Amino acid sequence: MAGGPRAHLPTGGAPRPGRRGTARGHHVSITALALGVVLAAPPARPKLSTIEPQVRAVAERFRGRLGYHIQDLTTGEVIAHRSTERFPSASTIKTVLMFEAARQIDKGELTWDTTVPLPPVAERNSSQWAYYLREGLSINVDALTNLMMNVSDNTATVVLGEKLGLLRINQTLQEMGYQDTAYTVRVPETETRLWRLRRQFANMGVTSPQEMARFLLMIDRGGVLSEAAHDRMRRILAKQYWDDWVMGTVPSDVVVLSKVGALNRHRSEIAIVKGPRPYLVAIYTDNQADQRWVAENEGDQAIIRIGTLLWNHMHPERPYQPPPNAKVFGPTGGGVTGRVSPLAAELGGGPGPSIQ
């Protein structure tokens, strides 16, 4: 048959399938493929409501007052406890000063390199690091803002706050609808509302978990100031020296925007965790029974427990615990010792590292 037409005859074995048999084979293949896609699909997104009883239990066991506002930034789901109550802000209020500095720069009233004289040492707070600069020096808004935010320097905060203006800072908050948040350093008695808040909360400021969570989210989402301003604020928030609370409960390659606060009676942290399933958390305490300045402080541990619950619940495929002996490399505050200036009491600090 060489050179002639090929015979289309079976040569043995099972008969070749016709059109109907081929369609059936394709159907089986497609079904198997679809089943594989279904089996490979990621698990359903974890809901915050599922973990809420465990988070609430941390708050209810706490010896003092603890409030939180937690939000899934993809679905918008929120769980909260005492989130509209006012708490001492401690150093989380510094986020407001950073925003006000950026706002005034956007308006052309300041520049990033505008310089401000440092006050005499006797008028400074004994916190790292501006306190230890020699008298007669000036420092610019860039340095003040980064010292205030990254290492939580109180001297830098007070100097920047006076440059920005107490009343202007609080006017901005009021105009933006933040009724429970205020900056209260060196408030004159003539400012009745601020003076009352200062006397009631006796520290740098006051806020609620809900409002400060909303403020942090506003900074991250942008659209209020120039994009350059929002970009710079995000970068500053992502570079925190005090990184062993919520920031310490997530893998080190995950970006976290954060600011912490601490007083003898109080601990706080606001954070946006930018993992695969991003979430926002604001935790505040007050009237703590445990007022020790140690890593085992009950307020510190409550924030860490909530942070750990959240990460491992939202990312079950990547559970995380800090490596063994992580505390050996935890932030210490620099180890600088010295007398506490009169300003320390004004800011609500105590004998411990009130710089936070």
Structure, explained:
The protein has 356 residues and is of the alpha+beta class. It has one domain: DD-peptidase/beta-lactamase superfamily (Beta-lactamase), CATH 3.40.710.10. Helices cover 38% and strands 14% of the residues. It contains 11 helices and 10 strands. The strands form 3 sheets. The protein has a 5-stranded antiparallel sheet, with helices on both faces. It has a 3-stranded antiparallel sheet with strand order 3-7-6. The relative contact order is 0.16.
Write the layout of secondary structure elements.
Blueprint: H1 19-40, H2 48-61, E1 65-72, E2 78-81, E3 87-88, H3 94-106, E4 115-117, E5 138-140, H4 141-150, H5 154-164, H6 166-175, E6 182-183, H7 192-201, E7 205-207, H8 209-221, H9 227-237, E8 256-263, E9 266-273, E10 279-286, H10 298-314, H11 342-346
Antiparallel strand pairs: 1-2, 1-10, 3-7, 4-5, 6-7, 8-9, 9-10
Helix pairs in contact: 2-10, 3-4, 3-5, 4-5
Which tags fit this structure?
356 residues; alpha+beta; 5-stranded antiparallel sheet; 38% helix; 14% strand
- CATH top level is Alpha Beta
Number of strands: 10
Low-confidence stretches: 1-26, 30-41, 340-346, 348-356
From the spread of the alpha carbons, the general shape counts as globular
CATH architecture: 3-Layer(aba) Sandwich
SSE pattern, N- to C-terminal: HHEEEHEEHHHEHEHHEEEHH
Tell me the structural class: alpha+beta
The radius of gyration over CA amounts to 28 Å
Give the total of domains.
1
Instruction: State the helix count.
Output: 11
Strand content: 5-15%
- Overall mean confidence score, pLDDT: 88
Instruction: Give the helix level as a range of percent.
Output: 25-40%
Main sheet overview: 5 strands, antiparallel
**CATH topology annotation:** Beta-lactamase
CATH superfamily: DD-peptidase/beta-lactamase superfamily
